[in-house]
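Service request form, structural biology core

Requester: graduate student, group of Dr. S.
Request type: structure prediction, single chain
Budget code: on file
Notes: please return the result as structure tokens.

Sequence provided:
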Amino acid sequence: MFTGIDDIDWASLRHAYGTARDVPGLLRGLASEDPAERETALDGMYGAVHHQGSVYDSTLACVPFLLTLAAREKGQDRAGIIELLVSIGGGTDDSGDTDDAGGAAAVSGLAEELHARAHGAVRAGAPIFARLAGDADAGVRRVAPRAVVGFLDEPARVLALLRDRIEREREDQVLIALAEGLGAFARRYPAYSGPALDILAVQSAPPNGPALRLAALGQLAARAPERLPENLVATAVGLLRERSTRQRPSEPCHAATDTLARHFRRLRPSDEEGSQLLRTLHSALGDRVPERIALLNGQLMSPGTSDRCNAVWMSAGLFRAWRGDYAGPVTLIGEQLGAEEGGLRDAAVSVLGDLHELAAPAGDALHELATARPDLWVRRWERGAPTLGGLLKALARSGDPRAVPLLAEVLAGAAVPDDLGVAVVPLGRQAAPLAPALLRELAAVAPDSPTAVSRALPLLRALTELHEESVVPEALRLLRSRPEEEPSGLVTLAALRALRAFGATARDAVPVLRGLLGGGSGIAAAGALWSIEGDATAVLPVLRRELASRDPYRRTAAAEEMAGLGPTARPALRRLRRMAGSGSVWERTAAAYALWRIDADPEPVLPALRSAWVESPYPRVRIAEGLREMGSAAAPLRDLIEAELGSGRRHLAREGGHGSDDIPKDEQLLRLCREVVRGAQGDV
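Core staff response, request fulfilled:
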């Protein structure tokens, strides 16, 4: 099995953490009789030899031994070894959307050569994968189709093998993998796709079982939507429920103590096969949002707890990526808050918490559970400070005023979560009754405490949002206590923003602000000083100096502050015009906005804003704010605004991200765009 392994100079080979002298031990561990040792060895292979999809010379040296291990008739955990080989070789991804980690985007030089050699080495073992497609181990049969499609360069043979196996197979998980293999085959070999799609069309119809039919429908939706039944949603929902009746009820997952890691494990879908089946179908439907909403509604009304839990989780991707009328599914997600299954309830809370104002249709359900379960208001961890519970956070983020008295009770408790202030911001002035308690918490923050940043930032932001003038002395106290050698200190910047927001009310801060003008926080200090006393002779030289900085972030920040000075900043026009014509999208956006505020000349402003808008979606909120202010002068850019309003895609959603502010930022952008259209028409 390991013939020749000791003839390799492993010490001269490398992996992610240096010399590969430990690799023979990992390979031998994969053949161990001890399951724990095999698992540890496989983790080591992914952690070092194939770290984050990378290929090293030691990775190449492992491939022949991995192929031998995969081919052993009585070997254990061979499915995991085959999956590792597919990843190393960069096999075709079943979804058709991206390549596997091992087939990451090509890079230059040696890395590109190593990836190509790895693909060739795994491809040399393709006959092994073809044989394993009929292995006695169902787990091996499940992963073999992907390997066959990805590495056996004989399309007629591959198609015949997939056809034969799907006719003989009886295990649902393997049948699903074969359907996915046919879809991947159709993508890899377009000239042979017709027969593959014919097979999928047959498998999507009775008398085949619900799991195979759902898998086939998902592949047809991605490769040949014209072959889908007219009543696709009703068919898929019916198959889902039929499948659910055949499944053993999943047992709820409970954690004895709630560590962060256990909490996230608890939130995983209990039926991952069902999740993948419906996720594939949702992904294939893409921008057909009304159909996806109808499908989601059907999932959320399923009698099966696992089906509903899967639906809740996959709804998050739909909400984040696409715009639509989600009142129906959000209401149904709210109904899951009353479920006895804690995992389903937690999933619903997590998804609703990221929706912000879009969670309003679930407001009654959130409030009902929050009032019934005060034990969920604060989450306590084995390590670290307590945080605001997701339930109360979701209610507050939705802007529901019923969150205010509940937050007041939390503020009156012994352990106030550091992040409570963040939940106050979406409530706006409705949360004014909380101001005294928030001030009390801020006054208790010791500037030299290790927790000063985590505690002070949310409180400063919340009190500023509430326009609570009593925050000024506290902001000044924190500002005086922060060392100047901390030029980018977050507390310093938050305190300066608070002082700026209150203008002349913060006049006592002027001496401190003047002392900060020459330091790293000079830009923010200049903005606060201008807001308080409007002295351009002190502020303008600082901002002009920063406009010439080599740091693009400082140039952008200086331009933003210049906008506040208005015509007083005319001496900076020349440099701002240059910035508007070059630099990053953020520099162009900030400079253009400043130019409009200073000179009200649209000629240099509109081209800069158009180029920044087209180049990146991320400054669009700021650009839209500027266009709204420009009123009818923004009319030449109306095409950009109307295109944004007509787009179903949320352009501010980060790829693969889970940002809690993606949706509210996108909704803000849409509101601003509508206001720009009205302003360009001269209505406002």
